[in-house]
Design brief:
Elements lengths: L10 H25 L6 H13 L2 E2 H8 L3 H13 L3 E5 L7 E5 L1 H23 L3 H26 L3
Helix pairs in contact: 1-5, 2-4, 3-4
């Protein structure tokens, strides 16, 4: 796979390099996910991350964020609850609503996963020259800002 090294390349050409780097990140992410216990599927991990980000969310909100129907999200939560990673409780704001939150084990699993990812990334970054690391950080900030702007545009009502 040829990586683009000329800064004057067109976005479509640069996308090839970004795709190659993203594939490397996916490999790192998958390896780290394989190391944490208990093992969770990619969809279970996404659910845990959404609940973690919100601290507490109802089932409908989780289903929306996952792009799933509520019954599928509920079954996903059943499995996470059985594994001791997620808890359901009556919402303090509305007794008819169920609030989802991580258990201590769920929080620990995410902390372990994040630590494993950071460790793997640090090893790869240590092999890069300092100037390349600096350029990577600058480029990723620009990419993040552009992506955030694009996602915000997509969410605006027409």
């Amino acid at each position: 796979m040829t990586l683009v090294r000329d800064s004057n390349q067109q976005p479509a050409e640069v996308a090839v390099s970004v795709e190659a780097a993203a594939e490397s990140l996916v490999i790192i992410w998958d390896r780290c996910l394989d190391r944490v216990r208990p093992r969770v599927s990619a969809s279970q991990l996404r659910a845990l991350l959404v609940v973690d980000r919100h601290q507490s969310i109802n089932l409908g909100g989780l289903a929306d964020e996952l792009g799933a129907i509520p019954s599928s999200a509920s079954r996903l939560c059943d499995r996470l609850e059985a594994a001791g990673l997620m808890a359901r409780r009556t919402s303090p704001d509305d007794r008819r609503e169920v609030a989802l939150s991580l258990t201590a084990a769920g929080s620990r699993l995410l902390a372990d996963l994040r630590e494993a990812r950071r460790s793997e990334l640090a090893q790869v970054l240590a092999a890069m020259p300092p100037a390349a690391r600096s350029a990577l950080v600058t480029g990723l900030r620009g990419f993040h800002d552009a992506a955030a702007g694009r996602f915000a545009e997509e969410e605006r009502p027409a």
